[in-house]
Design brief:
alpha/beta; Rossmann fold; seven-stranded parallel sheet; five-stranded parallel sheet; globular
């Protein structure tokens, strides 16, 4: 029997990308081993989210008796790390310790694999503290030389791992564990053609942005667009009103980003954290979702928006090219984030053929991304089966 530790201590109450990835990969993995009596799995989870994880994962008729859930103290980051390391050692040797994100561990007695999600701190180190950059680089260095393997979620992260840390398949065991469309939207029906067509006949435009309010997520670019639309409001053909819906955490950059912003014609709505039903409803009614990030390892809100037939407006970064393909319109420093995006918005409303072309592309992408977590779960199981004692 294989004994596996699934470390889910990156899972938090107010879901972020790591939380979404963790619960979806865990669910798909538990499904495929549900009838497998040759695998025992210990799930390590923070005490504050223990009940939440059970409610969201084990309502799916997971019945394997070889599953144990172990609570980790999580009243602080330091206590979480200490308790996690202590219990991973105390509970004996595992065939594999799997961690859905990078957490600091030191010289555990078992083979360990951790999943890296993105390298934004390396791409844009000026947006992060020097201490955080050192911490990130240390974790990658340790994983390169001491962990058994490294998981990666996209080809973009694979390329970045080589670029910034000289880690590649020639010097390290690597495992592709892709992201995908999460169950928190797949469990909801997609809006039918009548609902979508009616939405785009409505000229009261709803824009949506989901993510932390900082420059990494391109919030300065989004507000630059808003200012342009506000200044040129009278020239925007057939547009009755514009509302920007903002869903996400404020950061230490938020106040500075919104400083001196004075919009006369555009309404800003701050929603903060939203539960699944609320966010999904917002996706459905929004015409466009804005993703003008400087870098991402993936784009969970991007694929969520497309599930609900909301047209994305995206920056020209590697991961969005990987997800969307090179044909889908993208915006960068050369095109700017103002008049060209405004032209794209107007063209969606005025050119039915152009709109249909983008919607057909969205359907292709939704189909492609829908099985990401199933693929990741099967890749992980296959990896486990080939581990030698």
């Amino acid at each position: 029997m294989k004994k596996i530790a699934f470390v889910a201590t990156g899972y938090i109450l107010k879901y972020d990308g790591i939380s979404v990835y963790t619960e979806n990969l865990l669910l798909e993995f538990l499904k495929i081993i549900n009838d497998n009596k040759n695998i025992h799995i210990d799930i390590y989870i923070g005490k504050s989210v223990y009940q939440l994880l059970k409610e969201r994962i084990f309502k799916e008729n997971i019945t394997n008796s070889n599953i144990r859930i172990l609570e980790i103290k999580d009243n602080s980051f330091i206590s979480k790390i200490i308790d996690l390391n202590f219990k991973l050692i105390k509970n004996g040797k595992y065939d594999l310790i799997f961690m859905s994100n990078f957490m600091p561990t030191l010289f555990l007695p078992s083979k360990t694999i951790k999943v890296i999600h993105d390298f934004s701190v390396n791409h844009f180190s000026e947006l992060y503290s020097k201490n955080y950059l050192r911490y990130h680089n240390f974790l990658l260095w340790y994983a390169k030389y001491f962990d058994y393997a490294i998981g990666y979620i996209s080809n973009t992260t694979l390329v970045d791992m080589q670029t910034f840390h000289k880690i590649n398949p020639n010097n390290k065991k690597l495992l592709h564990l892709p992201n995908g469309i999460p169950f928190k939207v797949r469990n909801f029906d997609r809006p039918n053609a009548d609902i979508v067509n009616e939405k785009y006949r409505n000229r009261d435009i709803e824009l949506l942005v989901v993510g932390r309010i900082n420059k990494h997520k391109g919030f300065d670019r989004i507000l630059e667009l808003c200012k342009y639309l506000d200044d040129n409001y009278s020239t925007l053909s057939d547009i009755k009103s514009i509302t920007l819906n903002i869903v996400g955490k404020q950061t230490n950059e938020t106040e500075d980003i919104f400083k001196n912003l004075n919009l006369k014609n555009i309404v800003l709505k701050f929603h903060g954290f939203l539960y699944d039903n609320e966010l999904n409803s917002l996706y459905v009614k929004s015409h466009f979702s804005l993703f003008l990030s400087r870098n991402e390892g993936y784009g969970i809100p991007l694929v969520e928006a497309m599930w609900f037939n909301t047209i994305p407006i995206i920056s020209d970064i590697p991961i969005f090219n990987e997800i969307m393909g090179i044909e889908y319109p993208k915006f960068n420093d050369k095109t700017g984030y103002t008049d060209k995006i405004a032209d794209f918005i107007i063209k969606i409303f005025q050119d039915e053929k152009f709109k249909k072309m983008q919607q057909e592309k969205i359907e292709e992408i939704v189909k492609k991304e829908s099985n990401g977590y199933k693929k990741a779960a099967h890749n992980l199981l296959d990896f486990i089966k080939h581990i030698k004692d």
